[in-house]
Amino acid sequence: MKPRILVTSLLLALGTASVFAQTTAASTVQRDVNQQTRIEQGLQSGSLNTREAGRLEKEESRIDQLQAKDLKDGKLTLRERTQLRRAQDHASQDIHAAKANDIRGNPQSASSQRMQADVRRDINQEKRIEQGVQSGALTHREAGRLEHGQARVDRREANAARDGHVGRYEQAAVRRGEQHQSREIFQQKHDAQHHRG
Question: Could you tell me which residues belong to the region Disordered (predicted)?
Answer without folding.
Answer: 42-61, 84-117, 146-197
